[in-house]
Amino acid sequence: MDSKICRIGIIGAGRIGKLHAQNLKNHLPQFKLVGIADPQIDTSWAQQLAIPLVTKQVEDLLFHQDIDALLIASPSDQHLVQIAAASESGKAIFCEKPIGLNEADIKAVLATVKNNRTLLQLGFNRRFDPSFAHLQNEVARGAIGSSQILKITSRDPACPSSAYCATSGGMFMDMSIHDFDMAAFIMQSEVVEVYASGAVLINPDFAALNDVDTAIIQLRFANGALGVIDNSRQAVYGYDQRIEVFGSKGMLLADNQLQHSVSLHIQSVTTAANPEYFFLERYQQAYIAELKAFHSAWQSNSASPVSGEAGLKALQIAQAANESLAKKMPVSLL
Fold first, then answer.
1. Cα–chain-centroid distance for residue 158?
2. If you write DSSP's letter for every residue of 193-214 in order, what string do you get?
3. Which CATH architecture has domain 6-118?
4. Dihedral angle of Cα 168, 103, 72, 69, to the nearest 10 degrees
5. Is 39 helix (H, G, I), strand (E, B) or coil?
6. pLDDT tens digit string along 212-244?
7. Does domain 131-285+314-332 correspond to CATH entry 3.30.360.10?
8. pTM over 0.85
9. Is the peptide bond before 275 cis (omega within 30 degrees of 0)?
10. What is the C-alpha to C-alpha distance for residues 185 and 226, in angstroms, rounded to an integer?
11. Residue 192 and residue 231: Cα distance in Å, rounded?
12. What pLDDT score was predicted for residue 166?
């Protein structure tokens, strides 16, 4: 089947919005980037990409008759309102995580999406990373027998700004939520219990936001398997992203992607490169792959590869982690 061009607009021109815009223009010919909206739009940047419509008003995209789909990359607390509006205007939706910050509101919006039969894909891009996707496939085909232990390491190279954190929903909602989604995706089993420990060890400003910058999260899955996630807002050596699954027949390991593959071996020391610096470099292939999957679902009118329900489940785990941190005890999701 010939590829049909999807005319798309972007809401939000921050770091992730700009990344998607550049990928759409440079790597994804199955899309036509019609417009981008942001109250503080960088017009010179948009002009360099030759984006036809550059506006400060989201409504200019929501009601644009020549736009088939909207990519929502706005602040987290705006996602639900914009998803609902885009669904009511008949547009397919790709939305960055999290889907929202309130469970009841998410369920209401998902009902709107279902009633309108809207394609909604969540931006859990790590599912589309070649290494992580291969690891999940190996788990699913039984390469290591029954999975027993999952270990996820996810550490950012530098803390985000206090202004960003003030609207992000906190570490578990903003950062760990990727890991919660990956845990369920890899193990193909529901998380039924969460026990989270956290601390402010890097930036004292997080305490004023009632947030943490360092965490260990233990998971128990419905199939009996166990998981552990370790998160840090500051790994000085780079973007530390590793996954290990241990099973009855062996182990799978997806290691870091390094800045280069050359290692030095001399008498006194052996050295290797640091991991890629941050998500823009580390997950570039995944960002392109997830939009290819979105286009495929849109063109074939098929189910979303990452549904809104997946976003709701990840948020429920994040809520349980917040509750566990506050109560200093495990929290059940049953």
1. 18
2. EEEEEEE--S-THHHHTT--SE
3. 3-Layer(aba) Sandwich (3.40)
4. 170
5. coil
6. 999 999 999 999 999 999 999 999 999 999 999
7. yes
8. yes
9. no
10. 14
11. 20
12. 81
